[in-house]
């Protein structure tokens, strides 16, 4: 059932199921993210057989068909959301959701099925704690609605989950650079030093930076900064989080340093970027 926001006069079209049974999937007019934390199962997804072994995440769209043939000690939780939840930048107390062309592109490819892509993603040992934490917070916020910003926080964690899954799907190889990319995409919100990255890759800083230059066109720390700013752009555009909250969510120790780096790299302040991105979507 949709959530009634007790802090504002609105209906929020999201649901969280702490013990997903797989009996009613996919949910009507919803994208669904299912986090399988233990056990294994066999199922038919769009008439193709797949086997799921925990920990894994399955991303379903409303067009998918699913039929479970066998489950063994499965524990899972799911979060589903109407497309308007991420396609809308603004909410009006009098008009409800206000449609714009603004869309969160990050992670939407995860729900598309083509060729060998089936929407199933293996959760790595390093990424599991973060994903588990983010799912836990989303579930808690859906039920608790702890303050008037609970929807904003859910959108933030949804952006982080989709972004991490998308990056892990692109960089799944266990090369030194692949290991560092996984570390960055999982831990960018924490304090990270170059020494952390060299330990992860089992390389010295010169060798690591040379490999990053060859693959990504920048140093390892340069990539970290670029990725943090990419996440910050999504949070600026699609949430009402303050600059200080966004700075802390993306690994910047101080909001002043975040503003300085964002302005230097993007040619405008975070506030100017937020206003420009929303005005552009509104007038399209």
Could you explain how this protein is built, in words?
One of its GO terms (molecular function) is DNA-binding transcription factor activity. This protein has 284 residues and is α+β, with helices and mostly antiparallel strands. It has helices at 84-87, 128-144, 150-170, 176-187, 194-201, 205-216, 220-238, 243-249, 255-266, 270-283, and strands at residues 3-5, 10-12, 14-17, 31-45, 48-53, 56-60, 66-81, 90-92, 96-98, 120-122. Helix 2 runs antiparallel to helix 3 (150-170), helix 3 (150-170) packs antiparallel against helix 7 (220-238) and helix 4 crosses helix 5. The strands form three sheets. Strands 3, 4, 5, 6, 7 and 10 form a six-stranded antiparallel sheet that branches.
Average pLDDT works out at 85
CATH class identity of the largest domain: Mainly Beta
Number of domains: 2
| CA distance, first residue to last residue | 32 Å
Strand content bin: 15-25%
CATH overall fold name of the largest domain: Jelly Rolls
How is the main sheet built?
6 strands, antiparallel
């Amino acid at each position: 059932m949709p959530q009634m926001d007790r802090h504002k006069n609105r209906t929020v079209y999201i649901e969280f199921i702490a013990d997903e049974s797989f009996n009613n999937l996919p949910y009507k007019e919803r994208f669904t993210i299912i986090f399988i934390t233990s056990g294994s199962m066999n199922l038919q997804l769009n008439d193709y057989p797949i086997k799921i072994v925990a920990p894994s995440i399955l991303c379903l769209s409303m067009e998918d068909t699913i039929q479970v043939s066998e489950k063994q000690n499965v524990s899972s939780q799911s979060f589903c959301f109407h497309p308007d939840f991420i396609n809308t930048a603004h909410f009006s107390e009098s008009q409800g959701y206000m449609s714009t062309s603004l869309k969160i592109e990050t992670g939407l490819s995860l729900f598309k099925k083509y060729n060998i892509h089936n929407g199933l993603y293996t959760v790595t040992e390093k990424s599991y704690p973060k994903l588990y934490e983010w799912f836990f917070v989303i579930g808690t916020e859906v039920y608790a609605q702890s303050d008037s910003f609970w929807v904003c926080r859910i959108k933030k964690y949804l952006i982080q989950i989709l972004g991490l899954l998308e990056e892990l799907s692109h960089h799944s190889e266990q090369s030194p650079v692949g290991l560092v990319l996984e570390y960055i995409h999982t831990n960018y919100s924490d304090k990270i030093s170059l020494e952390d990255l060299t330990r992860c890759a089992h390389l010295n800083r010169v060798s690591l930076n040379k490999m990053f230059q060859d693959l990504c066109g920048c140093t390892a720390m340069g990539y970290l900064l670029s990725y943090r700013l990419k996440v910050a752009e999504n949070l600026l555009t699609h949430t009402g989080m303050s600059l200080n909250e966004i700075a802390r969510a993306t690994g910047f120790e101080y909001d002043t340093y975040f503003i300085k780096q964002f302005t230097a790299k993007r040619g405008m302040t975070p506030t100017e970027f937020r206003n420009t991105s929303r005005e552009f979507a509104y007038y399209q």
